[in-house]
Amino acid sequence: MVIDPLAARDVMISQAGLVPQEPYPGVRERWKCRCMNCQSIVYPTLGSVNSRGTGCSECAEYGFQRGNPGLLYLVTHQRLNAAKIGICNLNTRRIERHEGRGWQRHATLAFPLGGTAELLEKQVLAEWRAQGWRPVLDSGKPYDGWTETVPLDEEITPQTLWQGILDLHELVAAGGPREALLPDDGAE
Fold it and tell me: Which residue of 47, 69, 136, 154 has the lowest C-beta tally within 10 Å?
């Protein structure tokens, strides 16, 4: 199904309060937009606006709040033989929901601001992809959060992954290369 770019633009403006800043990229592609309320640049997909009614992630009163305390976590799944990194705010049931789907908590790291956890998560994912570690599918199908996973083996263990996360965190905390933790143009 082909979506008219002008109709897509109208949906973003009328339903989400977001003004596109670039040509329409496709229903499942992140689209650079400016929030009409807070003027933040955000990157939703037209599909998420249509299906879930999402809008500006900075103005949202639901979901992950960058300005509130947050956790970065590492969970593992025995059947998938995979590990998954994620972030959530404190006092949410996000990790418990993962546990209900067969994931087991390996470790967590608390942050006064969730935005710091988010930036570290992005850096870790960039590092994992630079290593050539691809996300893990479940029977060839994607699932919630599958892009934040890596396969486990004799060398890639939960312990080595967690140590890598701590090393990146320590590097930044010690005043290391902060550009490594700056959001890229695709950050939401």
Answer: 154
For 67-84, write each residue's pLDDT tens digit: 889 999 999 999 999 999
| Residue closest to 164 by CA, chosen among 115, 127, 111 | 127
pLDDT digits (tens, 9 = 90+) for 116-154: 998 999 999 999 999 999 999 998 887 778 899 999 999
The Cα–Cα gap between 10 and 156 comes to 46
For residues 70 and 66, what is the distance between their CA atoms, to the nearest angstrom? 8
Distance (Å, whole) CA 42 – CA 56: 6
Please check the confidence at residue 178 and state whether its pLDDT lies above 60: no
- Check if the beta carbon of residue 3 is closer than 8 Å to that of residue 46: yes
DSSP string, 21-76: SS----TTSB--EEETTT--EE--BHHHHHHH----TTT-SSS--TTS-EEEEEEE
Q: What is the pLDDT of residue 175?
A: 60
